[in-house]
C-alpha cells in the first residue's frame, strides 16, 4: 500500500473542495484501498463529497500506528497536550463558517443547529479538555500502619491512586453530530495521554476529517490521531478487533453496541458506550404545562428527533392529559419544516432515505396498534419538499405501555403519549412503573410544581440522568445510561476518568 501526503496549508481542509477525501493514517493522507463512496446531503439528495472506504488492513495499520505513537505521546507533559488541544480549538474557530456549512450539508441540520450545537460545541470541548489535561491525576490515600508479620517488618505504608492512560482508543462516532460527538471522545482521550483511531459514521465522515486536519495542523504528532472511514461493516469491526486497540468508545444503537461488547469482552478491552434511549417525560397534574410542552416539543425539531436524549415517551397524569396534548399539537403545528439553509426553518430532514422509511413505518405501526394521530402521521410534510428526506413531526396519543412505538427507539420527530391515573403516592407509583417499563435508561424527565415530589420521583427512576422541570444539560455532570442505554460515564471530568486506568502506588514510610 502506498501512502502519499496531502499538503496542509493553513486554513485548508484535508482535501480541496471536489477532491475525494483520503484516510489519515500515521500522519499521512492515504489513498483508500476500497475506493470512495458518495456522501449525500439529506436536504437536497445531492452529493456533498466522496468519502474513503478503508480496507481491514488499513484500519489495522492505523491502530498499529496509534500503538507506536502511544509511548511518546503518553509521556508528554500535560502542558504539551493542553497546548495541542487549545491550538485545535483556535483552528476550528478560524474556519468556523466553512465547518458550519459542511456540517449542515452532511447532516441536514439547520444552520443554527450546525453552528451552535455542532461546530461551537466541538470548539468548546477542545477548550474544556485542554484545561482537563492539567487536572490532577493523583488521589492521596491515608497511610496504613502494618504490624510485623509474614509480609515484612512493621511499617507505615503510604499510597496514592494515579490515573494512567488506557492506551489506544477506538472512537466510533454517531451520525447525528459529527463535530461535538467526536470532539467529546478525542479531546479527553488525548488529554489523558491516549492515542486514537477514529471511525466516523458512514453518513457524514467528512466533518471528522476536517476536525482531524485541525489536530494535525495544531501539532498532534503522527499516529496520535488516525481516521479511517467506510460504509462497510468490516471497517468498524476491524477498528474494534484490532489487537492494538485497548478501549472502544462507541455512540450508536444498542444492537451494534452489544456486538461491540462481545468482541471487547473476548479481548478484555475497556468500553465506553452511549447507546439507545427512549426518554420518559413524566408530567404531573401540578406541572407548568407550557414549560413541559416546550421541553417535550423539542423532540419534533432538535436534530429532527434524531437524538437519544429526547423526551419521546410522554407519561402524563389523566387530569392534564388533553390540555398537554393540545399544547404539544400547537407546538408542532407552528414548526416550519423545510430547507435547513433557510433562516426560519426549524425542522430539517432525517439523515437518509432508509431512515425516513424506518420512521414512517413506525408511524404506520402506531396507527395499527391503536394510537391516535394528533399531528403529522407520515407522508411528506409540505409542498416543495419532494427532494430530501423529510418527515412531518408526529404526535401519537392514546398509547399503551405494550405498544412497540412506546417501547422501541424511533429516532425521529415522533412523540408518543401514555396517560396514567391515581393521586398522591399512587400516582407517583404508576408514573414510575410506566417510565421504568423500558429496556432503556438514558435520560428521563419529571415535570411537577412540587419540587420535593419531582426529586423523590427522580430518585426512583432507573436512568443515567433525570431532568427536573428542564431538558437542559449541565455539561460537567456525568452522562451515560442504565440498562441497555450504555456502559460508563463521560462529560466534564468524568470523561477524563473514562479514558484512564487507575494505578495504585504504595511505598513504605
TrEMBL record:
Pfam family, one: Aldedh
PANTHER family: ALDEHYDE DEHYDROGENASE-RELATED
Record's keyword terms, sorted: Oxidoreductase
Bias (Low complexity): 1-18
Residue segments, region Disordered: 1-21
UniProt domain Aldehyde dehydrogenase: residue ranges: 29-505
Segments forming a coiled coil: none
The UniProt record lists the keyword Transport: no
Highest taxon, organism lineage: Bacteria
InterPro entries (alphabetical): Ald_DH/histidinol_DH, Ald_DH_C, Ald_DH_N, Aldehyde_DH_dom
Protein name, entry field: Aldehyde dehydrogenase family protein
Amino acid at each position: 500500500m502506498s501512502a502519499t501526503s496531502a499538503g496542509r496549508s493553513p486554513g485548508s481542509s484535508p482535501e480541496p473542495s471536489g477532491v475525494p477525501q483520503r484516510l489519515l493514517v500515521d500522519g499521512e493522507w492515504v489513498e483508500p484501498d476500497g475506493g470512495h463512496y458518495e456522501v449525500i446531503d439529506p436536504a437536497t439528495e445531492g452529493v456533498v463529497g466522496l468519502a474513503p472506504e478503508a480496507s481491514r488492513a488499513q484500519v489495522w495499520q492505523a491502530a498499529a500506528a496509534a500503538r507506536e505513537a502511544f509511548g511518546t505521546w503518553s509521556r508528554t507533559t500535560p502542558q504539551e497536550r493542553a497546548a495541542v488541544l487549545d491550538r485545535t480549538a483556535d483552528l476550528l474557530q478560524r474556519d468556523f463558517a466553512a465547518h458550519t456549512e459542511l456540517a449542515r450539508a452532511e447532516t441536514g441540520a439547520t444552520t443554527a443547529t450546525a453552528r451552535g450545537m455542532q461546530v461551537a460545541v466541538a470548539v468548546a470541548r477542545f477548550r474544556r479538555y485542554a484545561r482537563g489535561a492539567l487536572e490532577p491525576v493523583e488521589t492521596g490515600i491515608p497511610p496504613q500502619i502494618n504490624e510485623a508479620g509474614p509480609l515484612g517488618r512493621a511499617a507505615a505504608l503510604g499510597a496514592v491512586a494515579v490515573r494512567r492512560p488506557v492506551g489506544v482508543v477506538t472512537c466510533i462516532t454517531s451520525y447525528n453530530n459529527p463535530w461535538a460527538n467526536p470532539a467529546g471522545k478525542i479531546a479527553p482521550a488525548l488529554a489523558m495521554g491516549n492515542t486514537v483511531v477514529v471511525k466516523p459514521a458512514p453518513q457524514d465522515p467528512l466533518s471528522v476529517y476536517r476536525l482531524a486536519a485541525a489536530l494535525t495542523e495544531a501539532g498532534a504528532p503522527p499516529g496520535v490521531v488516525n481516521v479511517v472511514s467506510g460504509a462497510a461493516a468490516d471497517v468498524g469491526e476491524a477498528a474494534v478487533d484490532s489487537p492494538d486497540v485497548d478501549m472502544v468508545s462507541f455512540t450508536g444503537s444498542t444492537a451494534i453496541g452489544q456486538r461491540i461488547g462481545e468482541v471487547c469482552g473476548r479481548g478484555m478491552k475497556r468500553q465506553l458506550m452511549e447507546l439507545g434511549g427512549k426518554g420518559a417525560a413524566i408530567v404531573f397534574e401540578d406541572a407548568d404545562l407550557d414549560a413541559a410542552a416546550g421541553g417535550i416539543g423539542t423532540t419534533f425539531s432538535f436534530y429532527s428527533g434524531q437524538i437519544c436524549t429526547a423526551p419521546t415517551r410522554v407519561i402524563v397524569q389523566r387530569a392534564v392529559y388533553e390540555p398537554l396534548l393540545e399544547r404539544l399539537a400547537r407546538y408542532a403545528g407552528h414548526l416550519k419544516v423545510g430547507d435547513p439553509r433557510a433562516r426560519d426553518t426549524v425542522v430539517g430532514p432525517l439523515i437518509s432515505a432508509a431512515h425516513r422509511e424506518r420512521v414512517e413505518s413506525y408511524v404506520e405501526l402506531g396507527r395499527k396498534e391503536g394510537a391516535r394521530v394528533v399531528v403529522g402521521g407520515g407522508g411528506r410534510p409540505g409542498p416543495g419538499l419532494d427532494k430530501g428526506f423529510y418527515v412531518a413531526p408526529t404526535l401519537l396519543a392514546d398509547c399503551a405501555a405494550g405498544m412497540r412505538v412506546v417501547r422501541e427507539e424511533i429516532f425521529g420527530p415522533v412523540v408518543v403519549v401514555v396517560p396514567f391515573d391515581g393521586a398522591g403516592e399512587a400516582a407517583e407509583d404508576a408514573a414510575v412503573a410506566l417510565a421504568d417499563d423500558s429496556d432503556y435508561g438514558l435520560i428521563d424527565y419529571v415535570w411537577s410544581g412540587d419540587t420535593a415530589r419531582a426529586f423523590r420521583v427522580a430518585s426512583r427512576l432507573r436512568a443515567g440522568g433525570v431532568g427536573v422541570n428542564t431538558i437542559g444539560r449541565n455539561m460537567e455532570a456525568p452522562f451515560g445510561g442504565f440498562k441497555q442505554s450504555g456502559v460508563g460515564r463521560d462529560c466534564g471530568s468524568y470523561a477524563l476518568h473514562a479514558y484512564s486506568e487507575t494505578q495504585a502506588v504504595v511505598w513504605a514510610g
